[in-house]
Amino acid sequence: MSDGTSGSTSEGTSGGIGREGDGGTGGLVCQLVLAALCGGYAAGAAVGWGSEKAALIMGDFGLSAAALIASVSCFVYARTRGSRFRPAWLLFAFSSAMAAAGNTVWGWYEVVLDREVPNPSIADLFFLLFAPPAIVGLLVLAKRPVTRAGWICLALDSWLIGGSLLTLSWSLALAHTAHFDGESVTRAALSLAYPLLDIVLVSMVLALHFRRSQANRSAVHTAIAALALTVLCDALFTSPLLREHYQSGQLLDAGWFAGSLLLAYAPWGSRVPESPAPPRGPRHHSSRPIAGSLAALTPYLAAAVCTLGILYNVIEDRRVDRVVVLTGCTVVLALVVRQGIMLLDNIALTHELAQKENHFRSLVQGSSDVIMIAAPNGVLRYVSPAASGVYGRDADELIGSELASLIHPDDLGGVVHEVRRFLAASPTEEPTTRIECRFKSGTGEWLNVESTVNRHQGGLIFNSRDVTERVRLQAQLQHNAEHDPLTDLPNRALFTRRVRQALSGRRAGDAGTAVLFIDLDGFKGVNDRLGHQAGDELLIQAARRLQDSVRAGDTAARLGGDEFAALILGDGGRDHSARESRVHEIADRLRLTLSQPYRVEGQDVRVAASIGVAFAEPGISAGDLLRNADLAMYRAKAGGKNRVELYAPQMQADVVRRTEQATRLRTALKDGEFTLLHQPVVDLTTGRIAAVAAQARWRSTQGILFTPAEFLRVAEDTERASELGHRLLQDAVEQAAERAALGHQVPVSVRFPARKLVDKSLPHGIIEALLTKYELPSGALIIELADSDPRISFDELEQRLTTLRRLGVRIALDGFGSGYAAINALRRLPVDILKLDRGLVEGVVESARLHKITSGLLRIACDLGMQSVADGVDAPEQVLALRAMGCTHGQGMAFSGPLDEYRLRRALARGEYALPSRAALPVLTGGALPAMRAHHALRPHNETRVPPT
């Protein structure tokens, strides 16, 4: 029976070091079942199981069943849980199987055969086969030494413990067993084998206990409990006093039974994984110093036990047994050898520690970062020598000072808050933190310092570095990202953010807040005339004037190019008219300031300023407010420039309408909704048709006929303008060629913007290519210059017109008398035809002033040898007056409106229109022209009735 006990011991140990990962909600239930089984077995053994036969069965086959359960448990665990401890569990399963077999044989003799167990018997063989695999299993599960000296110390520690226990046991009991008279050698050996195996197991457990893996703590404790219980039962069974009266089924068997069940439970009942991940942070356990002390004192305690065993025999005046003397000598020798190894190991460790200390001291002292250790009260205990180079202060000077006195007062509150939060956090979840603050240097300057903070014995370790240059660089980069590089004013992004801030917070709802959009009129001319460097200098001066003109709390910004903006914050007043007057006054002052002459490269340069103003409204967004101010600025430019315009909701409606019309215009170009009409140009002397003026019309899918005044302005503002002009020119030339093929040799006049002739986007040689393609004869195409934009280069325009004239294209100056650049164009450009503006013709009969102006212009054309064409001749009286002034040709409703191709060919077939036959009365002298109806003065003709252009 004692052999079965040993098996239980090893099983418990193996279970204790096994995997611990399967604990769960059923752990408590398993523990309760285990306690109930052990308690029930102990209660049955205490009352003798009710009969001698039942006691023998439970004492033999009950222990066998418990050992078999332990064997199966360890075997199943080893097969289902793959790990590096699998061989140990298989060894423990084999050991428990041997114990179960031994108890079964024992029960066969006592219960089945009803006779005493022979001594020795086959049961002893099974019991003896239990110990070796159990010992090897312990070695497999132990925390293995990493050096040769560690293995030697492990062996010495095992012998110190085993020799001491052997000495003590031999002195007390085993000597009597070894000299038992009348016993055979085999029986004496068996009597010594069981306690000696127990001593070996106890020695291995005690030697390996302090080397156990921390990952298997729960299983190890369970195994140690099973081992302690089993060894205790073995010791009681071995003692002669109890052995003489022992019978199976007694209370002593309950200890072996409990040991086997504890072994079966050990691998499954733990709650920590067998190979856990390393802990995230340091853990402090109060039991560690005690465990370390016991591990160090174990060999010495064992030697003390051995010595006490020898002294006991001396004091009792007993003869000291040779086994005790031999064992004691080997224990002392092992202790001396172990002490020598420990001494050499301590010397090596001391040397290694000194080297590491020197290494880390060199790292700390040579580091460019400052390392500081602060006590819990904030007093600096240590400061590395790098402080003199970083802070400009000696380390000794800083030691003993309070850390709070060195931090900028504005940053101190944030630092204290972060430190308190860091100390309250879990070290495993937040081992470090980072703090950035300003630190006072030796010169009194505040340095930007970044510190990594770690915990240290209740205080803190600061690893600090100077990041002043980095902070300055970041501030500079932030400034560059938010400011215009040329003028250093806030850019669009920063201005938009400040507008957004002004519309939120405590200023939300302040209707006095306004945004001013400013555009410099004529700046492009300065760039073209003086160069971009001069333009940049002008922008710098304009930005300086704008910055000086706004109030302290307002914001001036450059949005890009020659566009500026200003944010005017409201004063909280509720008087609508007063706020508009105040902001309008500010805007007008800015306009006057920006319109003053600029001194650029030694000469005075003038530009004007168009300003749009938009006021904040409840609920308006920053984007909408900026858009409103932009619309108002463009309205100011369209209204004549150099003025201030306040935003009105109608402006947005106009933009929407123009956008929709532009979209429809693009669709019309794609779907071919444009048509070409022609209005005859009549010789005022003969009435013959001298030319036809091509005019575009847009007939939409809804049946609406748009005149050029309604869609050309939109076309000029879109990317389709060039496409539209190209298509209309091609259609006019193509139809003129078709008419010429039918015998109607009439020139066609096409209105063409002057800027399009010099526009780089227009394909080069397009007019020349059309003339060649359709083979128009010389003089069959007339180009009417339709604008007088002063920004157009007259040199380029003159060169272009000269080239066209060489190809037989005649040039007409359209709208003469309306533009301020007309005289300059007449002086420099190669013009063949002068076309009077409609505004002069409309009042030539009623206004004596217009009569004189028109008469003078016609004389100029006559003196220069040019033909003259009056546009908008709608009444017979105008025909008579213009002919009297010397005008050669006329175009208007007095003859015909714009005609489609069919009606135009019918008119060309007739060839002429009737002219008024009666002389005009002297209108300017108080007379009156007789009323003449068109159908009396002119021959009837059919025409397409559309509004005049």
UniProtKB/TrEMBL annotation:
InterPro entries: Biofilm_reg_signaling, EAL_dom, EAL_sf, GGDEF_dom, Nucleotide_cyclase, PAS, PAS-like_dom_sf, PAS_4. SUPFAM superfamilies: EAL domain-like, Nucleotide cyclase, PYP-like sensor domain (PAS domain). SMART domains: EAL, GGDEF, PAS. The chain crosses the membrane at residues 28-49, 55-77, 89-109, 121-142, 149-172, 192-210, 222-242, 290-311, 323-344. Residues 356-426 form the PAS domain. Keywords: Membrane, Transmembrane, Transmembrane helix. Residues 1-12 have a biased composition (Low complexity). Residues 511-649 form the GGDEF domain. NCBIfam families: GGDEF (TIGR00254), sensory_box (TIGR00229). This is EAL domain-containing protein. It comes from Streptomyces ficellus.
